[in-house]
Amino acid sequence: MTAFENKKVFVKTYGCQMNVYDSDRMADSLATKGYSQTDDMSEADLVILNTCHIREKAAEKVYSELGRIRKVKQEKAEAGKGDMKIGIAGCVAQAEGEEIMRRAPVVDMVVGPQAYHKLPDFLDRTDRGERVVETDFPVEDKFAALPNAKKEVTRKRGVSAFLTVQEGCDKFCTFCVVPYTRGAEVSRPVAQIVDEAKRLADAGVREVNLLGQNVNAYHGVGPDGADWGLGELLFHLAKIDGLDRLRYTTSHPRDMDDALMAAHRDLDCLMPYLHLPVQSGSDKILAAMNRQHSYDDYVRLIDRIRAVRPDIALSGDFIVGFPGETEADFEDTMRIVREVTYASAFSFKYSPRPGTPAADSDEQVAEAIKSERLYRLQALLAEQQKGFNASKVGTEMTVLLERKGREPGQLVGKSPWLQAVQVDAPEELIGEIVTVTIDSMGTNSLFGTMLAKQG
Ligand code: SAH
Ligand code: SF4
Ligand code: F3S
Q1: For the chain, what is the domain count?
Q2: What is the pLDDT of residues 302-343, one digit of tens each?
């Protein structure tokens, strides 16, 4: 057996959907060196933690997980099953590369998100006993250099796939690390995206979720040489045979342009769901966050979107306890939630991040106040989510069947509004879009009866 055969990589992913996408691309890159993915860390020759730096707790997890991995590595060596290399990727790698190397001698390589195409080369260097740190932003096109997954690998990953079209952020919200960890906004060329989308469709993928830290700021080179926006890209991707559902995330309220509105109005395959974070309802806090819009701008934008696509469901992100947030400011956040009504949402306590402007503010909000506000906000958001789910009971909807459910004979799929839907259906229907009547709802999903296959 050569060193190229039968190697196993275990990848653990934290953070956002882009990290999920990146983990697969890292695995694709390592496949060229004979690595296949495993779910069992103890048999891995290489362990990669794909990390998130967005909040303090997310970053802390890396060091506690490293302690655990070190033990597994030791046990594996003691059992005579060979060495285990350890790599740290993702946004903590980018932000704290050198510090990780100092604090954790067990780590063999630290690789920032812009260098994943160089993984095979880094692995060779670790074979020679080097410890590798790569956190530069290289000039070459990472995406063009990353190899494609084999068709069977793509199929195994499921019928709904992520596709990164844009990376990085130029917005510099004062609380956020992303512009530092992911760098400046870069959009992939349209042709490259179309090629990847066609490969996905060819492997049986029915739904593609276009990803970007600021996906609606997408401006990639089109086939005509001009810059295309996300709206134009969506109209183009809608023509690909087999791709019946398109989604995109995450958007910034400042970048919803007319072409994107038109896509929501005209494209049946663009799902009626929009994740559009507002963070706060207070104009004072929005300005301090550098969000570059007001309460009214946001609410008017939502009105315009609902006018073109009345059945659209909204989702958002919220931060409570941003420096200087008073009770009145927080009430404005509660007010905007009541006015907009969200189908689902993520909400967080403000977490000061080193190197971001808000972390240096001397108006930090006490932990107990943050907790209490988060509790009130989450209660309201949970009530709205329940109301949204309840509004679908008794209706008919299309569901993309994605995987087996917990009970035998049951499949789990997704509604157009990203709700999990459980139906009794045979396994052969995984990957099909079917019409379902919703009979009832549970805490995390809807239950339905299948009526017909859409094809
Ligand atoms: N690009 C997206 C957000 C990416 S980060 C946007 O502009 O909306 C995902 C979410 O994490 C943010 O929307 C925000 O709600 C939250 N977040 C980011 N930094 C944070 C911090 N320092 N403390 C608490 N929550 C934070
Ligand atoms: Fe972070 Fe703001 Fe950029 Fe979103 S828009 S990634 S919150 S800096
Ligand atoms: Fe986290 Fe980086 Fe995503 S900080 S949220 S993994 S862009």
Answers
A1: 4
A2: 999 999 999 999 999 999 999 999 999 999 999 999 999 999
